[in-house]
Amino acid sequence: xxxxxxxxxxxxxxxxxxxxxxxxxxxxxxxxxxxxxxxxxxxxxxxxxxxxxxxxxxxxxxxxxxxxxxxxxxxxxxxxxxxxxxxxxxxxxxxxxxxxxxxxxxxxxxxxxxxxxxxxxxxxxxxxxxxxxxxxxxxxxxxxxxxxxxxxxxxxxxxxxxxxxxxxxxxxxxxxxxxxxxxxxxxxxxxxxxxxxxxxxxxxxxxxxxxxxxxxxxxxxxxxxxxxxxxxxxxxxxxxxxxxxxxxxxxxxxxxxxxxxxxxxxxxxxxxxxxxxxxxxxxxxxxxxxxxxxxxxxxxxxxxxxxxxxxxxxxxxxxxxxxxxxxxxxxxxxxxxxxxxxxxxxxxxxxxxxxxxxxxxxxxxxxxxxxxxxxxxxxxxxxxxxxxxxxxxxxxxxxxxxxxxxxxxxxxxxxxxxxxxxxxxxxxxxxxxxxxxxxxxxxxxxxxxxxxxxxxxxxxxxxxxxxxxxxxxxxxxxxxxxxxxxxxxxxxxxxxxxxxxxxxxxxxxxxxxxxxxxxxxxxxxxxxxxxxxxxxxxxxxxxxxxxxxxxxxxxxxxxxxxxxxxxxxxxxxxxxxxxxxxxxxxxxxxxxxxxxxxxxxxxxxxxxxxxxxxx
Length: 615
Ligand SMILES: Nc1ncnc2c1ncn2[C@@H]1O[C@H](COP(=O)(O)OP(=O)(O)O)[C@@H](O)[C@H]1O
Ligand SMILES: [Mg+2]
What we know:
Blueprint lengths: L1 H8 L8 H9 L5 H34 L3 H50 L2 H6 L2 H43 L1 H7 L2 H39 L1 H6 L3 H49 L12 H43 L20 E11 L2 E11 L4 E5 L6 H8 L7 E6 L2 E2 L5 H5 L2 E4 L10 H6 L7 H11 L2 H4 L19 H15 L3 E5 L7 H15 L3 E5 L11 E6 L2 E6 L1 H7 L2 H21 L6 H6 L1
Parallel strand pairs: 3-8, 3-9, 6-7, 7-8
Antiparallel strand pairs: 1-2, 1-4, 4-5, 9-10
The protein binds adenosine-5'-diphosphate and magnesium ion.
The site of adenosine-5'-diphosphate has 11 residues, from strand 1 and helix 12.
C-alpha cells in the first residue's frame, strides 16, 4: 500500500515546462468552438460588469446629485438591459465551461484507457495499480479543471481588470496610475499565500490517505498484529501519521487565516488613496478633482479587481500541480509497449504445429537470468506438463509461449515460423490461458463466459460450460447463467470461478492451451472436475500444464522437470518414475505428505490409496 502512495507522490520539480503547457493546450483543439465561445462569453460578462459600475457612477452624478429623475430613469433602463445581457452570458459561459471540462476529461480518460490496453505485461509488473488509477482518475480531473475553470478564471480576471482599468482611465487617468501598481503587488502576495495554503492542504491530504491506508492494513491485518504482539508499534506508527496530518492542516489554516486580512489591507490602502487624492477637490472636476459618483466608481473598481486577482492567484498556484499531473499522464501516454507488432508481421492463419524454443535466453532483470540457452521441442497436439520447484521458471516459459514477453535472444518458432513475425492478435486470439487466480469481470456468469468468444450463442455457452464441468453448479443458482458474479467474481468460490474461466477458455477454442497452477487453490473435488474439463479441452490441442499436485499431470504426454531455468529431466510419468531422479523424488515426497495429511485428517490411510495405486 505504502508503495503505491510513494509512486503517486512524486512531485513536479522542474521549472515551467512550455512543452507540457502546449500539450495541455492541444487537448482543447478538438473543442475549439466551445473554447472560443466561452472566452467570448466571459469577455462580454467582464465588460458588462465594468460598464454597470460606470452606469452607477453616472446615475449618482447625473441623476441623484443633479436631481434629475428622468435622467435617472434612462440610466436605470440601460442598467436593466445590461443586467439581462449579463445573465444570459453568465449562463452561456458556465454551461460551456462545465461541458468543456467534462469533454476534456472524457477524452483524456479514453485515451489513457485505450493506451493501457496496448501496453505489455511487463509494464503492469513495473507499475503499481494505484499509480495508474491516479492518472486515470485524479490527474485527468485536475487537467480538465485547469483548462476549463482555470482558463475561465484567468480570462475572466484579465478581462475584468482591463475593462475596469479602461473605465478608470476614462474617469481619471492620473488617479488610475496611482492605483495600478497595486494590482501586481496584490497578485504576488495572493499567489504566495495560495501556494502555501495549497501545499498545506496537499500535505494533509497525503497524510490523510496514509492514515486511511494504515487503518485498512490494521483492520485486515489485525490477526497478524495481535499474533506477533505488535500493537504498541502500530499505535506509535499511527500516532506519527496523525501528527503529520495535524501539522500540515495547521499550516494550511494559519496561511488561510492570514490571507484575507492581507488582501483587505491592500485594498483598503487603495481605497484610501482614491478617497484621499480624489476627495480633495470634490465637485471641482476641472481642477483635477472628482465627483462623488466618480469616486464611488473608483472604489467599486478597486474591490472589483480584488476577486479576479485572488482567483488568478489560486489558478497560478494550482497550475503547478496540474502541470505535474499532465506530465505524469503524458508520460503514461508516451510509454511505448515493450512488445509490438513488427512492421512486416502477418497473421499466421493457424498456430497448429510444433512449438520450438531455440536457444532462448530470457530475464526480467538483466542481472538475474531466468532462462539461458533454453531448448525445447513440443510436437503439435502434445500435452506437456511443466513441474519443478517454485521460482524455477515454469510460468516464464508459458508467458513466453503466449508472447506476453519475448525472448531476449534466441527464437521461439511456432509451426516453423519465428513468432515475432506474427501479429500479436494472431497469437493471442489463438491461445487460451487459465491461471491460478481466475479473474472474472462484474456481470452475469453468461457475460463472463461470452467474454471467451463474443459471438457465441447461448447454447454454445452452455455446451462449453458442460464440457468444462461448470454447468452443474451454475444451474443450482436460482438465476442460473444470469447469476451476478459480483465485483471480480467475489460472490463465487475460487473453484467456481476457476470452472467458469475454464469454460470461457473452452468457448474460445484456442489452438494452444495453457494452465498455470489452475488447480492450486481449489479443493480436491473441484480439482477432479477441472481435470475432467481440462482433458476434454486438451484433445487435439498443444497444451502446457503447470500443476503443483503431480497427480493432475500423470497423463501428460511428456513431463518436463524445470530446475533453475534448465530442463532437469524429461519423459512420461512411468519413464520418469523408473529413472528414480528429480521427478521420482518430487512425486514420492508429495505422496508421503498427502498420505500423512490423510492420516491426520481421517485417521485412516484409505484416502491415500488412489495415489498409491498410481505408483
Ligand atoms: N514479473 C517478474 N519480474 C521479475 N522477476 C520475475 C517476474 N516473474 C518471475 N520472476 C523471477 O523469475 C524466476 C522464475 O519465476 P517463475 O517463472 O514465476 O517460476 P515458477 O513459475 O517456476 O515458480 C524467479 O526467480 C522469479 O523471481
Ligand atoms: Mg509459476
